[in-house]
């Protein structure tokens, strides 16, 4: 089935309008300094913090590379920038206002109706027209608008001969240093046409640079959802099938006339090319707790720079800081087979995250809280869920909540610890990341029940106001059972709160009294972290991974070992080193620590199962084969 060109162009233009609104919202919240976006975006709408961060790192990458090009070519008498599919971008006005366009002409190309709208806006607003200058005039043919240093052209990028003619008429000089910019533009074109444009630019311009920002990694779960999102908007990402990763994109340019090419995904760019003080500024702008989505999004976008004939060479993607970065595929020791529980597929209430699942009896799993789908809406979930195994089969059911308690608060990122056959303790969690953390609750459930009927279980919530309550106002922490001098304690460690983005403290809660008990702890204190894993082992606790203060995944493993007079922190060395990860789960089985799933910055694969031998430190990664 073919799609006519006109509706497709409208859909692509729609993504440009949405992008302008998102950039405007990003500037309004202080992520970027750009007073021109509000004049060009038209409608104003506040976006979510996750969207703001995504557009911030995109704008930062483009500005970083553009300003590096202008700096490297400032000795040339004339240079030019050609922005492909520019939409309502404010690049020219921002650079002109900053005094960076002394001898540079900016050409913008987009669909004719888009550039006509933009030209009308510029002429109507003095703040914009003043930066274009007195030479501003109506263009002819494809040249919609022309100033001395700024020109708007209405041309379909896929028509190369027409594009070349229009640029020549507008005064583009093939012999001077030229920067091509394509921000999420080429991917909407047929690969044969976008490849031809890349090659055309290399062949026609002897001294040129190319800046590309696009999506990558269509094969993993996040990538599949990303493709589905754009397809639903009738704006399919066409380049992903042929160029699925950063290396394929690099080869694409090197095989079409470009002599140098560098590429980074946005996790690497944010970490390596943005100064640490600027990272901290951005991280503190808004309450934020969507780390997994943020890092997954960044691993699915990249910035690429290619050049030819440039002296000195143009290499804007050189890291300003050195951080451990995993290059190439993760060495996998094998795969672990996994099968879908067919009976449970599609069961309401199972699709959720930020929840807590706990074994309350043999073969009975209680799941509480989290974010998921309920009554056709995505929201924080209040309902409890139970899975029980009977006669070799798993069954799912919803739990009846006796005396519904407002203190439950639809919480996320809490912990649940089973204290007895009929009692579990809920510690911490949150509703909004800007509100205070939630305290503790008892969950009471019957000691016996009919295992063949998962719906035949009722849970009662009981309020608690113990002295230890302030210590539990946190989320993304861990709560682990430990033993000291024959007494049972819950070791509450790390996490974050509304005031502290990462915590490194800990508390021993006496299981019976729920009071905070002071127990001596010695040894090197682990780096503060949240979203780590914690397991009971030999009376102590194994802490693995997590997200540190700089929002960087950690690859360290620590054992809190019981001593005669208290506990001691002890680092567990792994060989090879554990790939930093967070938001995984963990289990100890037959002297081995198993880490399952989670998020890491290594974009070439999804975290599977890592097996750490606690006696030898041998660390092996396995793919979960589904």
Automatic annotation (TrEMBL):
One of its GO terms (biological process) is tRNA methylation. Keywords: Methyltransferase, S-adenosyl-L-methionine, Transferase, tRNA processing. GO terms for molecular function: tRNA methyltransferase activity. It holds the Pfam family Kelch_KLHDC2_KLHL20_DRC7. Signal peptide: none annotated. Pathway: tRNA modification; wybutosine-tRNA(Phe) biosynthesis. It catalyses: 7-[(3S)-3-amino-3-carboxypropyl]wyosine(37) in tRNA(Phe) + S-adenosyl-L-methionine = 7-[(3S)-(3-amino-3-methoxycarbonyl)propyl]wyosine(37) in tRNA(Phe) + S-adenosyl-L-homocysteine; 7-[(3S)-(3-amino-3-methoxycarbonyl)propyl]wyosine(37) in tRNA(Phe) + S-adenosyl-L-methionine + CO2 = wybutosine(37) in tRNA(Phe) + S-adenosyl-L-homocysteine + 2 H(+). InterPro entries: Kelch-typ_b-propeller, Ppm1/Ppm2/Tcmp, SAM-dependent_MTases_sf. The keyword Signal does not apply. Its EC number is 2.1.1.290, 2.3.1.231. Belongs to the methyltransferase superfamily. LCMT family. This is tRNA wybutosine-synthesizing protein 4. It comes from Mionectes macconnelli (McConnell's flycatcher). The gene is Lcmt2.
